[in-house]
Design a protein that fits this description.
Number of helices: 14
Structural class: alpha+beta
Largest sheet: 6 strands, mixed
Strand content: 15-25%
Shape: globular
Helix content: 25-40%
Radius of gyration: 24 Å
Bound molecules: ligand BES, manganese (II) ion
Length: about 450
Amino acid sequence: MQAVLDYLQRHQSRFIRELVEYVGFASVSAQSRHREDMQACAEWLAQHCRGLGLEARVYPTEGHPIVVARTRRRRGRRHFLVYGHYDVQPPEPLELWQTPPFSPTLRNGTLVGRGASDNKGQHWAHLKAVEAYLRTGTELPCDLTFLIEGEEEVGSRSLSRFLRKHRQTLRCDAVVVSDTGLPARDLPALTYALRGIAAFEVILHGPNRDLHSGIFGGSVHNPALALCQLLARVHDARGRIAIPRFYEDVLPLTRPERSQLRRLPFSEKAYRKMLGVPALFGEAGYTPNEQRMARPTFEINGLTSGYQGEGSKTIIPAWARAKVTMRLVPHQEPQRVLRCVEAFFRRNCPRTVRLEFQPGHGCPAYRLDPTHPDAQAALRALRRAFQREPVLLREGGSIPIVHEFKEILGTETLLLGLALPDDNAHSPNEKFDLEVFARGQQLGVWLWQELAGT
Ligand code: BES
Ligand code: MN
């Protein structure tokens, strides 16, 4: 393996130059004005893969194109899928960037640019590891397919259909995804659980138009007040969700899980300071890491009613609306949870307003048994690449397609994140640590050795 590792070291600065070019594409999936940038980015990626000797294709979809690049299949070899996404979050607000989001810049050992960490740099590390095998004439011990999509940040709708259609050729032993985090540069992690999600909107309709609050106020239930009263009943005084049956399928945290989470470095003061809040809030009886990684939540993402413009306007609004997402833990079913929540809102909604409930997207949580032989192989690869004992993580975020890999392809996913907590994913000044980038490439080298043998 020394030749492969030496190759990586020798070519580090070119890898970074290539990543600069890749991050330079404004591949913003949410914004239609970037349609051509999406296409160009996908073509560029496929062309790059061809240059490495991979067989690569760009598949058009109803949404953004999907790039598939593969090594030749050989009988008797294990086959792994490496999933990533070339689409990025919108860069706005632009004025908060120190350098333009799509003019990637090297600064203090990091590459700054939208998508550098989430997710271009992370799958670039895997691709460069494979390049090192191919260019040094070192035999890859397994067959690999890179599946890089363009709609992760908007819900992976096309990919779900694509998986069903190409189920035969995408059949594999496991999926490898680097799109989560590691607690610190020298603390590698295997994420063995992700939270699921269930989205909905609730709208309370009051009077048939905005009313003069002087003429009618006092005799009509203000829908903004009614919505606040309703939402205020969702949590009890101890921060627990008071919706009957909400926790019905939630398994208690086991002692080993709790001690695993306690081993993560954590300072409440530093955490509070990083977030700029005067005090933390959460479900009593759980630590902040347990609350955000391993417990379900009910989060209001948006709350709208009445007049928000300049000056004052004396009205009783005609309606009030909340956008909510709930994070789910293993065994909770998004549809079932949504039904409990709708029933709760209907039961508690006063007769003075009309309730409209719109269910939205959702996916169940994901969980992998860390004693699974492939998870153990991944841990060995992390140990070899980082020269440190890896930790097991549960993460609070969601990657909807991971559940589909299991449903449609019947395979588990190994989540080997390369994003640091302060990489600014989804925020201005997103960056990717170049030391972690190099470690990620080494991880890509050892992973195939370890996985081939399980
Ligand atoms: N890469 C994140 C997911 C993530 C980040 C998982 C950190 C674990 C740790 C991904 O790009 C993301 O933001 N996903 C969305 C999915 C949603 C829109 C369905 C999320 O979690 O909000
Ligand atoms: Mn991502």
